[in-house]
Amino acid sequence: MSASAGPLIFLAACEPSGDALGARLMTALRRRTGGNVRFAGIGGERMTAAGLESLFPADELAVMGLVEVLPRIPLVLRRMRQAAAAARTLHPDAIVTIDSPGFAVGFVRRLGRRRAPRIHYVAPTVWAWRPWRARKFARLFDHLMALLPFEPAFFEAAGLACTFVGHAVLESGANRGDGAAFRSRHAIPPDAPVICVLPGSRGGEVRRLLPRFAAAVALLGDRFPGLRVVLPTVAGVAAEVRAHAADWAVPAVVVEGDAEKYGAMAAARAALAASGTVALELALAAVPTVIAYRLNPLTWAVVNRLVRVDYANLVNLLLHREAVPELLQDNCRGDRLADAVSRLMEDAAARDAQLAAVREALAMLGAGDAPPSDRAAETVLDQIVRRRGGT
Questions:
Q1: Confidence of residue 67 (pLDDT cuts 50, 70, 90)
Q2: Is the dihedral of CA 278, 309, 372, 94 positive or negative?
Q3: Where are the beta strands (DSSP E) in the chain?
């Protein structure tokens, strides 16, 4: 490869959140190199739209939970071997794995001799459970890019260089939705109360959460005349979400894509969401939110014994208090969800308190600093220069 061809960066992202990070990183790398960069690897619809020709569909690997992943192990192992073989053949200038730490570790272990810097984007949650993973990552990777300000200390103590780049949700555009235009597109009256319901991006979590969310929505429909529900979703589970929502007691609109999702958030009085990155998007959009989640009971029993933190939602973790209501596992019931959402729709003090708290948390994530994708791109390029000996 000639230097004029630009660096070749092998990316691996297996889930929708990692796909979004990867697409922004690709854009930032092009911006910082004047377009003189090439990509290969694994990604979803966003990275594909950004110009990546994925080795295989990334959504094959978007599985969460100990029980749920067991039937997929042969496929996951085969895809790890396929990705590693491709990376060895291509001789990239850097390898960047994004989130999905289980896949990232298995893939990197199969790479063989180190030729290019191995960088992982999104630190595994060693502060929450399995702290020994910090040492494992230190053995396998050359650099880590963290989204949270308190994470570098955990990995640097294990011998792995780590850069806090800021949380990518800050440049998602979640705070720029047009609620009035969204209502107009979907024939929602200007004065109709709207709640945004986000059941997740993986098939398993959607199937576990939608029945409970439907029960909550039915109760909310009795309490708020004229209520409308909007369900933003992703392509991999959209058909399932539409089929389920067709029978809901309240008129429900299912939408796809970021513009529609952020329009829905801007139109909403409150939100009910699966725990995950979308909770931060709702925070950025200033939508009072209730967080919910359920796991397979066996998975929950294992995780509950191992987890070392008090909260599931990142806003609460950063603030060390439950600023955003969390209803998890057995508490994830229609009646309790409806009560929590009702309070945020009716109680101005509760709404204001949550919105003030999320602003505080967003500042801790890097709001107001350089865009996280730019900082991540700078880190990747710096690692390439270092490996080349400063040339």
A1: very low
A2: negative
A3: 8-13, 38-42, 94-98, 118-121, 143-146, 162-164, 194-198, 228-233, 252-256, 270-274, 289-293, 326-328
- Length of the chain, in residues: 391
Which one-letter amino acid corresponds to residue 133? R
What letter does residue 6 receive in the DSSP assignment? -
Specify the pLDDT at position 390: 58
Please give the Cα distance from 45 to 371 (Å, whole number). Answer: 22
Asked whether 345 and 193 are in contact (CB, 8 A), the reply is: yes
CATH code for the domain defined by 3-166+369-387: 3.40.50.2000
Q: Give the distance from CA 146 to its chain's centroid.
A: 14
C-alpha span between 6 and 17 (Å, rounded): 27
Lookup: tokens for 150: 């308190």
Please report the beta strands in 225-304, taking only residues with DSSP state E, as ranges in sequence order.
228-233, 252-256, 270-274, 289-293
Task: Give the tens place of pLDDT for each residue, 337-381.
Answer: 999 999 999 999 999 999 999 999 999 998 767 899 999 999 999
Domain boundaries, the chain: 3-166+369-387, 174-364
Residue 71 Cα distances to 61, 66, 98, 238, angstroms: 12, 10, 23, 23
Give the C-alpha separation, 384 to 1, whole Å. 14
Cα torsion 341, 363, 124, 332 to 10°: value is -10
**Gap between the Cα atoms of 209 and 273, Å rounded:** 9
Helical residues (DSSP H) of the chain, grouped into ranges: 16-33, 45-49, 66-69, 73-90, 101-109, 133-140, 152-156, 179-185, 203-223, 235-245, 258-267, 277-284, 297-306, 314-319, 334-346, 348-364, 372-387
**Helix H or strand E segment including 141:** none
Q: Which CATH architecture is the domain 174-364 placed in?
A: 3-Layer(aba) Sandwich (3.40)
Of 166, 139, 172, give the one whose Cα is nearest residue 150: 166
Burial of residue 70 (CB within 10 Å: 0-12, 13-18, 19+) is exposed
- Tally of CB atoms within 10 A around 113: 5
Give residue-wise pLDDT tens across range 259-289.
999 999 999 999 999 988 899 999 999 999 9
Tokens of 135: 């040492």
